[in-house]
């Protein structure tokens, strides 16, 4: 992990996890070897504060869901400087919010991965744009198995039978979709808009009210030259406005360019900025970049010049992992027969993340496979009822 040093503009501090050491020794070594962000007294106090989590295991971690990162650190006697130096950046990277809002359970799960899995700190990038390198292979696989993918086919409403099971889905173009099983794999905010009134008081669905998506902004900037002070890695900016960033001309095969840099940055927390203009966002971003790259970027663009930029706003992204949200997260199998959910907000160990969304899909598929015989029998019963009628 590589962190920018705000008090030393243009410099970075590293946590290197040695390949030759197993977990958790490689993580302990990385922390002990870094003397630029935390002093020895702070490391000892932080280690002492973490000891209950290490000894208590998953049960302890889950019990900390009621605390914010800031409150938990103070409860454990960890100096505020540890939170400021490390966990502001980590909180924004994990959930796009600051440690005074983020549930400590989220951070402890991430730390456990670093300490228990040898490659838990490893980060990776797609080798190209997501539609081509992620979505298209999935669509091709579905097609190869006889499936169909319909674009621009938004669900308008879920129609129910008298027993409150799903009768069919009505699309915005008026088409009707009928199936043996139904999976809604959307952000939680969209699911809540689709819920039929007859379901809203069911405890499984009612608990979703507390789960809301967090706003985030992605900023893409193409420069007229190669920035020297970048790495083939994800970087923690430690900026008050920016979260993590990367030079995609170095980290991503499709954007590789030996002569020009393309920075992709996460602008977070974004709540106060999501409705602002592109020019305001790019101005604030350049102001922060001038601090990160003082020898290469200036506000007046007298150094590196912007060739083009693109702002992507996501008003509701992953669910906001604030305290006491964990009990509200649903299992993938709903209490409605033949109706299932998938998404980062559903129960799975990677919380609010792309990895969590993918894992939720696997768990959802597993639930459907487990229910296959029952679903087949249910559909057969419907067919026989229709034939009799």
From TrEMBL:
Main location: plastid
Protein source organism: Dillenia turbinata
Domain Amine oxidase positions: 3-369
PANTHER family for this protein: 15-CIS-PHYTOENE DESATURASE, CHLOROPLASTIC_CHROMOPLASTIC (PTHR42923:SF45), PROTOPORPHYRINOGEN OXIDASE (PTHR42923)
Protein name: Phytoene dehydrogenase
Keyword Membrane assigned: yes
One GO cellular component, as annotated: chloroplast thylakoid
Entry cofactors: FAD
Cell compartments where the protein resides: Plastid, Chloroplast; Plastid, Chromoplast; Membrane
Molecular functions per Gene Ontology: phytoene dehydrogenase activity
Membrane disposition: Peripheral membrane protein
Pathway involvement of the protein, from the record: Carotenoid biosynthesis; lycopene biosynthesis
NCBIfam families for the chain: phytoene_desat (TIGR02731)
Subunit-structure text: Homotetramer.
Keywords (A to Z) from UniProt: Carotenoid biosynthesis, Chloroplast, Chromoplast, Membrane, Oxidoreductase, Plastid
